């Protein structure tokens, strides 16, 4: 039950400004959830609309405190308005990840004018949005993983290759052709490796998936022996649970007079389809090839446009640095973590690897000379 706030002192101008800001933010957040719901269906749509209704209840709390001092409608915080813009245009897992971080920043825990129920709501909202974002991350897991790893490998490996070769003092044309060769070799290797990896994993899962033809014999099993329990025990159930589940399946089969309703019985298949999380071999290979190539082309661009020497090195480093910051921030957003921390970490790792190769190039170039 929501506690009633009794004001022991008149509201100050500072209180009024803060309450109006909270009111505007709650309106904006409710709009974000409604916009996201408009791009969803089924259960996810219902959940998002319920979140919007909860933000509406919080809005009424601040309206009650403000009374006749609500004033003209104000716009929400910049980050909330930006979130709303993304929700209207995209409605993707990126928006849910941003919404998750926004819920985690709720000021209600430390604000005496907010009720304990409101503060608790915001904490629960964070977990609800985390759950919705996790669904989206699972759908993206296969091809997105290949894309992120591909572009980062392309950026770091080809920058290291270009800087290492360039540090030896060879002509710019040699650096250019070396970079292009590294791009093609790396992209083909990444694509082939990702295809083999994902395809092999899917084949292992398929080998563990029950044969559909086995469902047709359920009606003819010996009810006394009930060997179906062995199937469920092999899948990890305890003997007791396997016995109960097997009897329920056979009872349903008997009621259906020999026709197996897989939706009711669950058949012999495991409850979770892991293929969706892995993605397809072709999709992962294509993502790896394209993204590795798009990352690996950046260190080569200065040489393609005729630059050489230290100028080309600086331009290549700047281009790769910006790309590393961007990919790191995207990974941070999707993981629900601080995007800039992930971006800086990505930059340090990438430049560290390239810097080591550059120093080795200088060393070998000096020894050859």
Description of the molecule:
The protein has 369 residues and is mainly alpha-helical. Helix content is 74%, strand content 0%. The chain contains 14 helices and no strands. The radius of gyration is 29 Å and the shape is flat.
Quick gist of this model?
The protein is mainly α.
Features:
369 residues; mainly alpha; 14 helices; 74% helix; disordered N terminus
Please count the beta strands (DSSP E, at least 2 residues each): 0
Number of helices: 14
Mean pLDDT: 76
SSE class: mainly alpha
Largest sheet: none
* Helix percentage: over 70%
- Which radius of gyration do the C-alpha atoms yield? 29 Å
Our measurement of the CA-to-CA distance between the termini, rounded to an integer number of angstroms, reads 81 Å
List the helices and strands and how they pair.
Blueprint: H1 13-37, H2 42-66, H3 78-89, H4 93-104, H5 116-167, H6 172-208, H7 228-234, H8 239-255, H9 262-265, H10 275-278, H11 281-296, H12 301-304, H13 309-335, H14 339-368
């Amino acid at each position: 039950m929501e506690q009633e706030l009794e004001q022991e002192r008149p509201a100050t101008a500072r209180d009024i400004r803060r309450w109006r800001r909270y009111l505007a933010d709650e309106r904006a957040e409710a709009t974000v959830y409604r916009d996201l719901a408009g791009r969803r269906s089924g259960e996810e749509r219902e959940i998002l609309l319920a979140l919007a209704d909860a933000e509406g209840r919080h809005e009424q709390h601040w309206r009650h405190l403000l009374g006749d001092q609500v004033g003209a409608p104000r716009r929400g915080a910049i980050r909330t308005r930006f979130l709303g813009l993304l929700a209207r245009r995209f409605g993707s897992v990126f928006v849910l990840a941003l919404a998750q971080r926004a819920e985690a920043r709720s000021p209600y825990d430390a604000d005496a004018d907010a009720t304990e129920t409101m503060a608790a709501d915001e904490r629960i909202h964070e977990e609800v949005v985390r759950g919705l974002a996790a669904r989206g991350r699972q759908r993206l897991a296969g091809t997105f993983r290949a894309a992120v790893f591909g572009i980062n490998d392309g950026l770091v490996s080809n920058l290291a290759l270009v800087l290492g070769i360039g540090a030896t003092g060879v002509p710019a044309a040699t650096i250019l052709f070396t970079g292009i060769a590294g791009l093609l070799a790396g992209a083909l290797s990444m694509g082939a490796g990702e295809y083999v990896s994902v395809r092999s994993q899917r084949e292992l899962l398929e080998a563990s998936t029950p044969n559909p033809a086995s469902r047709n014999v359920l009606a003819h099993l010996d009810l006394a022996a009930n060997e179906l329990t062995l199937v469920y025990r092999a899948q990890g159930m305890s003997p007791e649970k396997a016995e109960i589940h097997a009897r329920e399946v056979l009872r349903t089969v008997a009621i259906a007079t020999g026709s197996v309703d897989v939706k009711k019985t669950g058949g012999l298949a495991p409850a979770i389809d892991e293929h969706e999380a892995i993605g397809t071999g072709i999709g992962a290979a294509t993502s790896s090839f394209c993204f590795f190539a798009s990352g690996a082309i950046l260190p080569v661009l200065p040489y393609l446009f005729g630059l050489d020497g230290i100028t080309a090195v600086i331009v290549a480093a700047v281009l790769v640095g910006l790309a590393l910051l961007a990919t790191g921030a995207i990974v941070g957003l999707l993981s629900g973590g601080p995007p800039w921390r992930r971006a800086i970490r990505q930059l340090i790792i990438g430049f560290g690897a390239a810097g080591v190769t550059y120093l080795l190039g200088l060393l070998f170039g000096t020894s050859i000379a």
